[in-house]
Design a protein that fits this description.
It is a single chain. The protein has seven helices and ten strands. By secondary structure, the chain is α+β, with helices and mostly antiparallel strands. It has a five-stranded antiparallel β-sheet with strand order 1-10-9-6-7. Strand 6 and strand 7 form a beta hairpin.
Length: 309
């Protein structure tokens, strides 16, 4: 409210001051109302945008969940069947695989073609969809090479790497993997490729740990790895047991931050060394899970037991 000022004295000056204050208050009030309206409109727009983004995220999550479920199913479908393992007359083979996520990056396979048998184990760097896709590539290429009659261990890994390297470049998957194979000719095992230690337990309880670091380099790092691939012959007699594993076994942690470790793995293997391959695997896995307890599993876990019948 403004008042009319009739005098020029101090009362008149005070009245003019109040009029100016009233005008300023009115101005700021109108501006504040307009600002509130503008901010309210902006908030409504932001809420609508957030709602749209949430809907998009939900759709994307459903799509990714479906893709992961499909990839996981495909990954499990290409693992060796029990009947395939049972058909290997000279060897008793059992395996366990547990991905840390829906899709793992661990690889294992038992490839039989005629009288030739090849057992593979590998670990793609990381896990998740890309690692799972690369693992599927390894399985497909290895199967094709085995069926094509590629019997030379060095040439097998060299050709497999060459094919995978081209696919890695094409798909822009920034991944590589450690990979080793055991070739069985009925008398001994031929080991090739770089991966974790191979554990051999003799019938007398003697343990042989074979380092594979000098037998190759990670697959997918460069186009030609032929100069790096080497082989080692392993005597494998009746009753002997071979364990293959990924680092998800030895690097599994308990609540105290301790690692399961290679020594504990060897100890558990000795404890069940006289059991069947199935019971060797289940016994070691049970001990591993007891060790982990409630601690989160951060890496894929794969374990294979191969016993000479």
């Amino acid at each position: 409210v403004r008042v009319a000022i009739a005098s020029r004295d101090e009362v008149g000056e005070a009245g003019e001051a109040f009029n100016r204050m009233a005008e300023e208050i009115s101005f700021h009030t109108e501006n504040l109302e307009q600002l509130v309206e503008e901010r309210t409109a902006q908030i409504e727009d932001a809420k609508e945008e957030i709602s749209t983004l949430n809907a998009q995220l939900q759709r994307e999550n459903r799509r990714l969940g479906t893709e992961l479920a499909v990839a996981e199913r495909i990954q499990l479908m290409v693992l060796p069947l029990h009947q395939e393992l049972d058909e290997v007359q000279a060897l008793e083979i059992a395996a366990y695989m547990r991905p840390a996520e829906e899709v793992g990056g661990d690889y294992y396979d038992v490839l039989k073609s005629g009288h030739r048998l090849k057992i593979g184990i590998g670990d793609v760097a990381g896990h998740g969809l890309e690692s799972g896709v690369l693992m599927l590539m390894v399985q497909s290429v290895a199967r094709a090479l085995q069926e094509a009659g590629n019997a030379d261990a060095v040439k097998f890994l060299t050709d497999l790497n060459n094919a995978l390297f081209k696919n890695i470049v094409r798909t822009k998957i920034d991944k590589h993997l450690t990979l080793a194979f055991l070739d069985y000719d009925g008398k001994e095992m031929i080991l090739s490729g770089q991966h974790e230690e191979v554990i051999v337990i003799r019938t007398n309880g003697e343990i042989e740990r074979i380092d594979t670091m000098d037998l190759g380099i990670p697959i997918g790092l460069q186009a030609d790895i032929s100069e790096f691939i080497k082989t080692r012959r392993i005597t494998f007699e009746k009753g002997d047991l071979i364990l293959l594993h990924t680092d998800g076994v030895t690097e599994a942690e308990n609540d105290a931050g301790e690692l399961f470790g290679i020594e504990r793995l060897c100890h558990e293997a000795l404890r069940v060394k006289n059991e069947s391959a199935d019971k060797v695997v289940s016994g070691i896995v049970a001990a591993l899970m007891h060790f982990i307890g409630s601690h989160k599993i951060h890496d894929d876990i794969t374990l294979l037991a191969v016993r000479h019948r």
